[in-house]
Amino acid sequence: MDLGGIDEGTNILGRDDRDLHRGFTAKRISIIREIIPRIPVIRRDHVMEYAIPVPRKIIEIRVSKALYRSKLPDLDYSVNPYQGCVFGCIYCYAINFTGIEDAWRNWGGVVVVKTNFIEALRRDIVRGAKKGVVGVSTITDPYMPIEAEYQLTRRSIDLLLKYRFRISIQTKSPLVLRDYYLLRTYRSSVDVGMTITTMDPSLARVIEPGAPHPLARARALKKISDAWIYTWVFLGPIIPGLNDAEEHIESVVEAARNSNSLLVFDMFNIYERTWRYMRERLDRSEIMKIYRTVKYNRDRYWARVRERVLGICSKHRVLCMDFSYIDVTDPRNNWIYWRRDMYKYRIVESIDNYVDNRAVG
Questions:
Q1: How many whole angstroms separate alpha carbon 145 and alpha carbon 12?
Q2: Nearest to 325 by CA among 74, 113, 102, 84
Q3: pLDDT tens per residue, the chain (361 residues)?
Q4: How far apart are CA 346 and CA 328, in angstroms?
Q5: In the beta sheet, which residues pair with residue 167?
């Protein structure tokens, strides 16, 4: 099997199982089978130090639609070839937007694969979807280890780019390097964002237990940036008492500087399912501090942290933006504008020349 640069081998095998799922009844989905997965084969430079996370179960389904209008202001569409995520990040808001109950109740342990996703996507495109910016992905990580087997992300990107859509990727995985040559070929229509909440591996193992090593993410992003593909680091969410200290922020800003990337930062928001999941995995004292800060002291806390981030960005001459900040006087200071349009300038001149290394927000 051609795995597009991944070592050849048997990645995921499993047995057919009778449908045990009872939590999702949407008309656009039909469940095919459930699979007990094995460890995928992935090139050593696409991971680092950590064991490759494997879900306890994979649910294969068929869908009738793949390209959805995005409710995020910085995107026109979103594609999500998978639901659920083996990285199991304790802060992930996607838990609240995952439709299959088995996946969100067993976050990190169950992944849903849309096996006919490429057929559905091609059908959506041919039916006349207007060209725009497509987020890959918005409620899952598009480069989980099982992507090495199913290749739905790679094939989706290839198809969308051939039909002249613009692609905006956000991931935590160095597996994005597998698609390096594809992205480089279409670099005028692509940007890649890497979520890095901390460079401290011990903290990362607590809040992102299955995600790749932060250093592996930073190195992958630099390689992509060196190919003149527009890159950005997402420092988010910033969680009170966990990754809001100056040393955590500064190390991520340095990673953005080393890869010549824009830095976007955002504060933690409380969602019902996410909060329930987080409470099961953090100490009570940490939970109470987060809750009191976010619920009762949000504005004052964020003003302090925002000033801290902007100061560190200015010190390291990194362009950074508050995800939620809206400047009505100059749209170039808003992340929405940058994600939609400013990637173009990565091709014709460096970020340094265009914005004089300003910290924005």
A1: 10
A2: 74
A3: 333 332 323 222 222 222 223 233 333 445 555 555 544 544 545 444 456 788 999 999 999 999 999 988 889 999 999 999 999 999 999 999 998 999 999 999 999 999 999 999 999 999 989 999 999 999 999 999 999 999 999 999 999 999 999 999 999 999 999 999 999 999 999 999 999 999 999 999 999 999 999 999 999 999 999 999 999 999 999 999 999 999 999 999 999 999 999 999 999 999 999 999 999 999 999 999 999 999 999 999 999 999 999 999 999 999 999 998 877 677 777 787 777 775 555 444 444 444 444 444 4
A4: 24
A5: 134, 190
Give me 75's structure tokens: 């995107």
First and final C-alpha spacing in the chain: 48
DSSP state of 213: P
The amino acid at residue 311 is G
pTM: 0.83
Which 8-state DSSP code applies to residue 243? T
Using alpha carbons, select from 182, 359, 135, 356 the residue that is nearest to residue 263.
Answer: 359
Q: Give the CA distances from residue 121 to residues 3, 25, 161, in Å, rounded to whole numbers and listed in that order.
A: 21, 21, 12
- DSSP code for 175: G
Angle between helices 284-296 and 298-316 (to 10 degrees): 100
DSSP per residue over 16-30, as a string?
-------S---TTEE
CA 141 to each of CA 146, 238, 338: distance values in angstroms, whole numbers, following the listed order: 11, 19, 22
Distances (CA, A) of 38 to 60, 274, 305: 15, 27, 42
What b-and-e string marks burial along 146-170, b requiring 16 or more CB atoms within 10 Å of the CB? Answer: bbbbbbbbbbbbbbbbeeebbbbbb
Tokens of 271: 């969602």
SS3 349: coil
Beta-carbon contacts of residue 105 (< 8 Å; ≥ 6 apart): 23
For residue 198, which amino acid is it?
T
Return the SS3 of 29: strand
Residue 287 and residue 304: Cα distance in Å, rounded?
A: 20
